[in-house]
Every structure is written in C-alpha cells, then in structure tokens.
Write a sequence for this structure.
C-alpha cells in the first residue's frame, strides 16, 4: 500500500472532483509526504480551506479539517491556532480565494505574522466557477470574463506576503513535485506566517481559453520555463524575465502572533 494512502479518505470521498490533468493532486501528494517526513500524526494537524478547486482538498485528506466560507479560510485558521497553539494549522487556498475575496485576510495575517502555513495553489483562474479571471491571471491572458484578454496586472503572491510581513515565502511548481515537497516541509516547520505558492496547471479552463495545449504540454511548459532562484540570481534580468522563479524568497525568524497574544493575556491576568 502506498504510504500516502493512510492519510486519505478513500472509502468515503473518492473519486475526487479535480479535472483530468489538474495539478492539485500533485500538490496534495507533496503536502502529505512533507507531513509524513516530519512525523506528525493526523491528530496534530488541522487543514482549513475556503472555496474553490483547491479548497476541496480537506475533503480527501484524513486530517482534522474545516471547509469554510469563500475567502475566509485564513480567518478561521487564525481562530483555530489561537484556541490551541499546539496544533499545526495548514490553510489550503487558491488565487481567487486568497487574493481577491480573501485578500484583506491574507494581508493582515501576514502583518500579524499569524502562525499558519498557507499553501496557495495558483492556477491563474477561477476554475470551479467557470473560468473568470483572478488576481493572478497574467495581463493579456483570456478568461471567461475577459474574452479579449485581461487589462489588469497580476499579483505576485510571494512579494505581496513578504511586503505585508510574512516570515517565510516560497514558490514551487507541480512539475517539480520533489522541490515543492521540500518547500512545504520547510514552511511547515517555520514559526509565524509561511506561504508556499504552488503553481498548478488548469488545462480545462485556463489552458483551453489560452490555447496552452494538453495537460502534458502545460507541464512540459513548466519544465522549460522554470528556474530556481539560485540559478536566476546568476543570470541577467533579460534571461529570467518571463520565467517562473522557484525556491525560497524570504526566511526570517520573528515572534509569531500567538506568542505575542499569549503575553498580552498573561499581562491582563496579572501574571
């Protein structure tokens, strides 16, 4: 039996709803393997999600889980962590869920340095609701709500999180599952707000609307257009432009929100 099997709900919730060729299953596998490497039990974990393709994940993973309202996963997760700081709280979210409807929660959780690990599965589109453009749809790319191409510039989630105060930011791609697994493992051990942006192909909507080809071609494109940050730093900007840069971008030791909040409680209690 595959070692990941024991952390799934095979008898209850499978087959899953993700489309053929979707990268979200690869990300899920990387998360499970990272947790297994750390030796954490399911009872030590809580997985919280909002709404969207990515946010179906807690349904399939046999952790303690919360499937919450659209854009509110980080707010729910912060409450869970404050109630029991010993729990490892993972937020599963997408580009629309985290950066549009949940954008304010995302920014302020970074500012507070909430002790959470956020896995932001970025497929550049609202996949579950018909292919509307999201805050990470690149300018000029097509969506069901932008049939002639978007006119808005896209967010860089890692840069946004770092600027807002996150302790750790990193990016990986579905094609390189091993690197993604290592980034998630590192993020899970960090104190404070850690973000891993996982670039995940959506061949059904984003790929079809933008004529990206099959799911295999989209993964091959990732392979050909991804460069690690250490290699990128040695190259001139024109050779890095247009590439997906992966790796750890920001990693600092800071006091997480839960510890500061606990100090305030003790002070208020006269301890």
């Amino acid at each position: 039996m595959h070692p990941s099997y024991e952390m799934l709900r095979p008898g209850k919730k499978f087959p899953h709803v993700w489309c053929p060729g979707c990268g979200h299953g690869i990300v899920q596998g990387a998360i499970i393997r990272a947790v297994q490497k750390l030796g954490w039990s399911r009872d030590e974990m809580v997985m919280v999600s909002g709404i969207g393709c990515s946010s179906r994940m807690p349904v399939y993973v046999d952790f303690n889980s919360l499937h919450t309202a659209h854009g509110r996963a980080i707010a729910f997760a912060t409450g869970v962590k404050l109630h029991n700081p010993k729990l490892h709280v993972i937020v599963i979210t997408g580009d629309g869920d985290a950066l549009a409807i949940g954008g304010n929660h995302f920014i302020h959780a970074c500012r507070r340095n909430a002790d959470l690990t956020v896995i932001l599965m970025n497929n550049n589109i609202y996949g579950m609701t018909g292919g509307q453009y999201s805050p990470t749809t690149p300018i000029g790319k097509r969506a069901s709500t932008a049939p002639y191409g978007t006119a808005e510039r896209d967010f860089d989630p890692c840069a946004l999180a770092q600027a807002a105060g996150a302790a750790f930011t990193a990016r990986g791609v579905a094609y390189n599952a091993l690197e993604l697994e290592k980034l998630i493992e590192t993020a899970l051990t960090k104190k404070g707000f850690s973000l891993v942006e996982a670039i995940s192909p959506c061949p059904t909507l984003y790929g079809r609307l933008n004529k990206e080809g099959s799911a295999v071609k989209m993964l091959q494109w990732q392979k050909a257009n991804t460069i690690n940050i250490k290699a990128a730093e040695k190259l001139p900007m024109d050779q890095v432009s247009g590439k997906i840069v992966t790796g750890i971008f920001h990693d600092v030791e800071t006091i997480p929100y839960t510890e500061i909040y606990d100090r305030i409680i003790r002070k208020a209690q006269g301890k």
Q: What stands out?
A: The domain at 20-269 is CATH 3.40.50.970 (Rossmann fold).
